[in-house]
Records
---
Amino acid sequence: MQKRSQDALSGQVALVTGGARGIGAAIGLALAEAGATVYAADLLPCDEVVSRIVEAGGSAQGLALDVTDRPACAAAVEGIVAAQGRLDILVCNAGICPPGAVAGDWGQWDRVIDVNVNGTQNCIAAAWDHMVSRRYGRIVLVSSMAYYQGGVIVGTEYSASKGAVAAMTRHIARNGGQHGILCNAVAPGVIATEMTASFSKPDLAAIPVRRIGTAEDVAGPVRFLCGPDSSYMTGTILNVTGGIVLAA
C-alpha cells in the first residue's frame, strides 16, 4: 500500500531552488506538507516560506544560493548532506523570465542561459554523485510551454533555455534510471506569480480551462513527481498549461 499523500515524503530531504516566492515557494510548501524536510534556496530571503512551513508543523531551512555559482551549488549540497545525511529530492526551479524579442540584447541572452540552463546543470551536478551512491534520487526540473510552442512575450533566449531544460530532463532520465534516479519535469503555462506580474494578461478564451494558473497548480504535479506514485515515470514532461498545450 502506498503512503498517504500527507506523509508520502516523510523522512526525505528536498532542495528547492528559487524557493523564496512564487512557484518555488509553493513547491516547498507542498513537499513539506507531504513530510519532507525542505531547504529553500534563493538569492532572495526565504524567511517567509520557511516560517509558513514551520508554523504548519513542517521542517524547513533557507539557503542563500546563486545557482550560477558552481562551487556554491556544490557547497550547498555538501552542507545539506552533512546536516541531514541525505538528499533525496532536487527541484531545479530557479529561473528568470524577462520580456524579450527575437533579436534581444546579448547581455540578456547570456544571463538567461546562465541562470536557466547552467544553473540547473550546476545543481544536478552537485547532487548527482550523492544520489548515485545512495541509489536513489528524484530530480524535477521546471521547463515551460515555451519549449514546445515558442513564446510571444518572452525572448528567444527564454524559449531556448526551457528547450534545453526539456532535453536535460530526458538525458538525466536516460542515464539515471540504472542508479535509482528518476528525472521528470513540469512545463507551466500562464502562471500568476511575482515574476510575471508585469506581463500583459492573456485572453482567457485561449485557455481551455478559462483561468490563469496559480503557483499551487504547478506545485501539485511536482509533489506527485517526487513521490511514490510516480515511481515508474522518468523522462516525462508534464504540461501544466490549463489545456493550452494538449500534447508534447
Note: The chain has one domain: 5-240.
---
Amino acid sequence: MARAGGIAALGEVMQLAFVPDDFDAAITHWTEVMGVGPFFMIENIHLDGMKYRGEPTDAVFTLALAYWGDIQIELIRPENDAPSIYSGEYAQGNRLHHVCILVDDIAKARAVCAEQGAEVMVEGKFGASEVIYVDPGAGPGSLVEILQQDPDGPDLFGMIKAAGIDWDGSDPVRKLG
C-alpha cells in the first residue's frame, strides 16, 4: 500500500520504459517473442524547453510505443550524446529504465516529488503536454516519468492501444509524426 502523500499516490503505473542496447532487436523481441504490438514510432524528439538537472540540453531521442493489455511498453533510442537520462549514469541498457504515471496537475506532482526528496532530472514539453522525470532517491533504474497530457489534444495513447487489440502481427512498426 502506498504511503499517504507518496509519489505512488499520484496515480497508477501505465508504462514500462526501456532504453535497449539494440533498439531494432528490442522491437523484434517485443513483437515476435512477446507478441506485443504494433509499435508506433516517433522519431527525433526534442522536448520544448528541455532541461537535464536544471540545465538546458539538446538531447534528441526516438521512441516506439505499444500496449501489452493496459500497460504501455516504450522503447527509447537516444539520437545524440547531449546530457540526458538516456546516457551516463542513467543509461540502463536492457533493463527497466523508468515507469510512467499520468497526472492532471503537474504542479501538484512537482510538489509531491519535492516533499519526497525526488530530484527532477528532466523537464520539458511535448506539444501542450508537460513532463518531468524524477529520481526518487534509489539511484539509476528507479526513475519515474510524470506526464500531464493535453486534455484537448488527440488521444494518441488510446489510438495506439486500440491498434493492439486483436493485432495480427502485420505491420509491426508504424511511424507517427
Note: The helical segments are 23-33, 106-115, 156-164.
---
Amino acid sequence: MDYLKAFLVGGAICAVVQIFMDSTKLMPGRIMVILVCLGAALGAIGVYEPFAKWAGAGASVPLSGFGNLLFKGIKKSLTEEGFIGLFKGGFTASAVGISAALIFSYMASWIFNPKLKD
C-alpha cells in the first residue's frame, strides 16, 4: 500500500506541475525553483514534514521534497553552529543526493553517447 500511496501522491504533484507548465508562460527552470521554494516554505511552517511522513517517497522525491530537505539542513545547522549554519546546512543536508546525481549521470554518459544540441 505504501508504494501505491507514493505513486499516487508523486503522480499528483507531477500532474499539478504539468498543468501549471501548460497553462502559464513560465520557463521550466523557474517552475523548478518555485517547487524548491514551496517545499522549503511548507517545511518552515511545519506542514511538509507530516505530509512527507504520510506520503513517503511520493512527497520526498519531487523537487518540493528537495526544498524541504534544504530547509531541514539549514534549521539543524543554525541551531548547532549559529549564523555560519545558514550557509553550511543546505550543502551538508543535500550533498549525498547531489553527489549521487552527478556520479550516476557521469556513468550514464559512459554507456550512452551524449551529444550537445546545435
Note: The chain has a mean pLDDT of 88.
---
Amino acid sequence: MNIVPEVALAAIGVSIFKPYFDQANELVNYTFIDEIFHVNQVKEYWNGNFDSWDPKITTPPGLYYLAVWWLRLTGLELSIANLRLLNFVGGVLLIITTLVVKKYHNPGLSALSLFSSPLLTIYYSLFYTDIWSTLLVVQSYVVTACWKPTLTSAATSCLIGSISLLFRQTNIVWLAFALAVIVDKLAKDNYRNILQYDMGVFVRKAFANWRIVTPYAMVLIAFINFVISNGGITMGDKENHVIKQLDGTIHHIRDLCGSHCRPDSIVRAAVFHSTTVVLETPSSASGRPFSVTIGIRVSMELLVVKVSIPSLFQLRV
C-alpha cells in the first residue's frame, strides 16, 4: 500500500488546523475554564513544589509531569500557548498512530479519522487531559488488536494503559476492554455463535491464559486499592463530582448510536462475544476521545465502542 498520499493528507490536515490553533491562542490568551487549575498546577511542579496539589483537580498528575518534561526538553518558556502546544503535538502523534494501523492492518482507514473528530479537535487548543489520555488509550488498544495475543503484547498494552491512568483514572474501563480483546482473540476459533457457550469459552480461555491476564489483574488490584484508599474514583473536589444515575443519558446514547451506527451494529454491540477484532474499511463516523468521565460526557464517550473503535476496526459477532 502506498502510504505517501495519506502522509500528504495528514500534513494538509495539520497545516489547515495550525492557523486555527494560533488564532485560538491569540484570542483566548488566558486560562479558559478548568485551565486555570491545570496551568497553576504545572507552575507548582515547574518550581519544584511536587508536594503541592490543588484539591479542585479531579484527575491524576500525569499531564503536569509531562508538561514539565516537555518544557525542559524543548527549552520553551512556561506559558499557556506552549502548554497548549503540547496537546497539539499529541494530536500529531495520534495521526502517526493511525497511519501505523493504516499501513499494516487497515488500508481503508483515513489518516485523519481520529484527529479530525469534532469532539476532540477543540482540545488541541486547550491545556486539558483529553488529548494525551486519548492517545495513550488508542495505543494501548492498537497493541492488543494488532499484535498476536502473547504475554509481551499484553504487558506492553497494559503498560501503556497504566500510563493513561495517570491522565484519566477512568481509563481503567478501556484497559479492561483491551484485556477482553486479547482473551477474545484467543477464544474466537472455539466460538459457536451461541451466547452462553461462547461466554463459557471466553472465561475458560482467560483462566487458561492466566499469564497474559496477570498484568491486567495486577493493575486492576492496584486501582481498586486506590479507589478504596482515596475514598472514591475522583481525586479532588469530591463534593461536586458525585456519581449519580442520569436517566436522560440513556436516551442520549440511544439517539447518538442510532444516528452514527448501522442498525445491525447496535444489536451486535449487545452481544458479549462481539469484541473479536477483524480489519475492515471504516463505515462509521470518526471517533471521540477514549476516556470515560462522569456526568454529561458519558453519553458521548460511550460511543467510542461503536464509533471511534470501528474507525480502526470492525467488531465481529
Note: Confidence is low (pLDDT under 50) at residues 262-317.
